[in-house]
Amino acid sequence: MLEVIIISSIKVLTVVIVVLTCCAYSTLLERKLVAYMQHRLGPIYAGPWGLLQPIADAIKLMFKEDLVPDRVERTLYTLAPILSFVPSLLVFAVVPFSSDFTLFGYDVTGVISDLNIGVLWVFMITGFGVYGVVLAGWSSGSKWSLLGGIRSSAQMISYELSYGLSIVGVILLANTLSMTEIVGQQDSIFSWYIFRQPLGFILFFTCAVAETNRAPFDMAEAESELVGGYHTEYSSMRFASFFVGEYANMLAASAVAATLFLGGWQGPLLPPIVWMMLKVFFGMFIFIWLRGTLPRFRYDQLMNFGWKVLFPLALLNTMVTGLIVMLTNGTN
Amino acid sequence: MNLDTVIFFAAAVVAVFGATMMIAQKNPIASALYLILSLVAQAILYVQLGGLFLGSILIVVYAGAIMVLFLFVIMLLNLRSSDDLGPPPPALGRFTKYAFGILLSVELIVIVKAARMPSKATGVLGFPVEDFGSVKAVSTQMFTTYVYPLELTGILMLIAVVGAVVIAKKENNAQVSDDSGSDRPAKKQVS
Amino acid sequence: MFEDFYPILFLVALATFLGVALTVMSIILGRRTKLGKKFDPYECGMEPVGTTKDPVPVHFFMIAISFILFDLEVIFLLPWAVVARDLGWFGFGAISIFVVIILVGYVYELGRGALTWE
């Protein structure tokens, strides 16, 4: 029993450290990629290819003045970045990052916890993401924050619907909510659910972009109209909490997309963990590519798109998948 | 005392603490947050009792959706503290408040006393049947035995949609007519 | 079954610790000066005008309540999806009727323009 506890504790620690490191380097990846898309070089001075840039940024942020404006409501203002940061890490609890493996003679499962409600867990945690945004906007005592906070929270809940609905198609095919089992079913490339749920994947990823408040749905940071959105009044590591939370959410969304649609850690030749990393990287690349390519939506377009296009499409996708599953019942 | 029991008591204490603080807070947003805390603790209790699906639904629907609505309503009315709700109720109002409080507590105690507890429960964490409370078990029941209540829930939600639209849109149209004064609102209602 | 949640509880604790640590770190490490008007809320360099006490538009309320209702629908669809094959056509019929009922509400909202952002 003690052995199990120690193994899973080490696993949790490793996952958290890896995720946070990936968050830091995602910022570099984003700056580099966007720079190349715009014929610039991006960060080059801190280390070779700017590899030390994230560390320099982190140290700079740590020693920045922790400025708390006068009009804030202190308790909620302090709570908001924490509430935004914590849920972003929790999604990784159910994401299988590798097959089961043996390390130093101990059997280790490739997931922190194989809940049999894994998909529901993702849905649960996504729901909590709204609170950090709402509270930051509300407690900052600034007009930009309030507008940014309420806009992005309304956006997040609107897209959460289609986010949930787009997964139902996969569940219909998989007949389980356990992430590990879903990965297990995608053991050859052609059984990846993206080929049977192409619309589902597109819907899922679109909603994921909106959920994480990324371009082209980045209402929270619509600099030209809302300054910094809900984190206008935040500085120092409090701001960094929001920032890390955003990148951890992107990583989580990529990881969930990889698990549900791209076969998770399954893949030929390379070790499972490498496949998982590659697929998450692919997701991150799309996130950054979208940011480098698309102009920002106007807020009314964004809400209408979510409610009038994505939601009916997701529902249609679900019901059609349901019908197909019914028709092929027994043969599949 | 094993770890499960410790978690059970911790969750139970947090649930009650959250509920109490929710009432005691002056700031409505803080009240809402304490309610969320209480709900999360209750979800842990559900899961410990085997109601895995029920626990997750409690989080998704109550903590994730309904509480967001509460926060939006608080923001909509811009309640910064309970003082914004207006002057405290008069003496009679306060008396009825306490009277109802006591009545409800008495009722609660009576219900708990009268409830038929399983005569020999297998401890706090025992499950009555295999697969109890799992998603499969709950949904099979939901779509076979309780399929009529399910459809009725759908109709209830339909009514709620209509009610919400009627309340919210009426106000909106009134604003439009204040602004423009033209025949636009009338046209709108037809469409 | 609850053993599955032990690692998750540990993860929650660790994440909360890190979240609090980040905030505490900024309080300890940051230099502080009390100068000028920098404690005013940001307003593009102008003197702050008005308050944040203006009520939020009712439309956001409409969005939130629609979200709850359709979220419940998703919550009913998820368990059906898990057992869809076992339930067969009966389950499909049941959920279809349910979805159609909800769709009536959706179409009504569309018709009344409740989901249109003006």
Report on this structure.
The complex is a heterotrimer of chains A (332), B (191) and C (118). Chain A has 332 residues and is mainly alpha-helical. Chain A has one domain (2-327). Chain A has helices at residues 2-37, 53-62, 74-90, 118-139, 143-174, 179-185, 193-196, 198-211, 223-226, 236-261, 272-293, 299-327; strands spanning 101-103, 106-108. In chain A, strands 1-2 form a two-stranded antiparallel sheet. In chain A, a hairpin with a 2-residue loop joins β1 and β2 (106-108). In chain A, α4 packs antiparallel against α5. With 191 residues, chain B is mainly alpha-helical. Helix content of chain B is 75%, strand content 0%. Chain B contains 7 helices and no strands. In chain B, α2 (28-48) packs antiparallel against α3. The longest helix of chain B is centred in the last third of the chain and has 34 residues, at 147-180. Chain B is globular and about 55 Å long. In chain B, 24% of the residues are buried. Mean pLDDT of chain B is 77; it is low at 174-191. Chain C folds into 2 domains: 1-32; 55-118, Up-down Bundle (Methane Monooxygenase Hydroxylase, Chain G, domain 1), CATH 1.20.58. Chain C has helices at 6-29, 58-112. The model of chain C has no long low-confidence stretch (mean pLDDT 82). Chain C is built from 2 helices and no strands. Helix content of chain C is 67%, strand content 0%.
